[in-house]
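User: Before I run my own analysis I want an independent prediction to cross-check against. Here's the chain; please return only the structure tokens and, at the end, one sentence I can use as a sanity check.
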Amino acid sequence: MDAGKSAARGKPRGKAKGKGGKSERQLMEERAARRERHNKQRGEERLGSGGGAGAAGEDGELTALRGGGKRPAAKRTDDGGPAAAKYKRGERNVINSIKDKKLRMEIRRSEKAAREAAARAARAEILLPSEAGFLEAEGMEKTFKFKQQDIKAAVDVGSAKKVFTLRLDDLGPYCSRYSRNGRHLLLGGRRGHLALADWMAGTVSCEVQVKETVRDVSFLHNETMFAVAQKKYVYIYDNQGLEVHCMRNHIEVNRMAFLPYHYLLATVGNAGFLKYQDTSTGELVAELRTKLGRCDCMALNPHNAIVHLGHSNGTVTLWAPSMSSAVVSIFTHRGPVSTVAVDPQGRYMATAGLDGQLNVWDLRTYKKLHSYFTPTPACSLDVSQQGLLSVAFGTHVEVWKDALAAKAKSPYISYPTHGLVVRDVHFCPFEDVLGIGHSNGFSSILVPGAGEANFDSLEANPFQSKKQRREAEVREHKLL
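Assistant: Structure tokens:
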């Protein structure tokens, strides 16, 4: 055994040999070569059975792809299906004739983003817990013949409390504004009376007599501050009724509008100047000369923050603070324009003039869609979150359903004020309520289906607490 062990230890070490005296490495290379030849032969056989190289299959693709390559993935077009049709903003643009490549790509990108947004909105519908409901008439009945007493008797107790009238005979006519979340109400009497209230809870935050003419009122970023256009200047008040600031650059202002995402207060008055005031820094951002004289008609497009002004020559001009002249000028009436309103999606504009016409315009093409006749010139218009159009003329208020995209045959709701001349009308956000400011105070009526049934608590929360309001202010200032 010792001799055998010594012989084994003394044997020279070499590479391991396989069959035929070949090394393991050589055997592995031969196997790989055989496998490659076999795969190549199978590929040639498949090409021959498919009609030769370059022959197309039934689906138009080369059969060579079926032999060894992968078929390219199908292009996915997720447009949301039929559920996303109501969220789309129109048909696609024909861009093949556009020569500018950069413009063509920008239009493609914007349309792709719009399609994706519509698809996401359609997929998120399952998360919406509530649906808007409207009045439904049976048989020969008409909804505009329903009285507020009948509607009040048919709804729950909480909704019935939203129908009320404030009689303020000596200080009117009154203009009104709702806060963005719809919880607070601001009233301004022509003879100097100001009132801020949480109308849902029935509590008054402040009540002030400024002893001056009040032309218009407007909330600022939230219900803690509001602006009042008085006899000569615009004043800022807090929710306790204390005067915070006097803006002496804004003289004899008739109408105001606040841009919530830009912190800009837009004003226009007897001088015909449109002014933008930054309420976060106190600076005057822009002072634009309209060159059309006195202006008493203003509306804000909630979709793109463009200010619409109605003038005495029958035109409506569209303004942006970054442009020194009007972006668009539309001839809308043969007489002076009395009031303007824009729907929340920014698609349609309703105008009324002293010629007794109420016209609806498409803001995407700037063309008139259809017109209505008012017995007396309309003094105020407003569009709800669900697209209902309210029209105030003389001592009557009418609400029209589906009157923007197509011409309606009859009003949805009709409300006579019984001899009280209406000053303005405003829908309450997230509520089926219409506020009416008239010569003897303020009235609130029910309009089923007017408000948005589902709210975004990060955008506008009707049940916002004091802590949530402070946190929202911090977030907004960080964005600024």
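Sanity check: The helical segments are 2-10, 24-49, 63-67, 101-123, 148-154, 157-160, 466-479.
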